[in-house]
Amino acid sequence: GHALNGEYITAETARAEAADLFVARDWAAPETAYLLLLAEALIASSRLDVGRLLEAAAAMRRAQPDDPYWGYAARAIEVMAMMFRRDLGAGRAEARRLLHGSRRLSSHRMMRHFLVSVLSDILVAQGEYREALSTLEPCETPEGHGICFSMQRSAALLRLGRDRDLLLETDACVASEADHCLRTLTPLLVRRALALNRLGFT
Question: pTM of the full predicted structure?
């Protein structure tokens, strides 16, 4: 929960305590908590730590080698690592394969949402701003905004110079205040500030 909300220092402490307890109790790898490994991936991504991301993916495969849901999540984490390595073409292709291929039928919705977000980030990094918006068009933000598709759209809108559209897209997020995930609210607020500055607001 801390990692999802962007509280990475607290999340790191909790993750380390959980890992120590796991070792102290001598629990077997299949008992590893799925959410703990997702937290590990979020912490690693906040630090742009490709090695740690790949280790989180590998740990998922070791814990549940025959579970297609865990395998899908591991591969999604690896796509994020591709993005951070600037291997954008491979990341884009693999994200689309995971999102539209048969493997999507054995995946958690949250991981598909993460993957769409990573794909939109890749498209923006490649200068494909309209393609990013097209990819995000059918997506609806889940409650709590742990994945915030308005935040994702704001990156493309900012690059396109569509500042008023950016503000309209993100007005509801700002209005939600405490109900909005902090991890996704922070970049959204930065982009709104840039748009407001362009429009002459100080």
Answer: 0.92
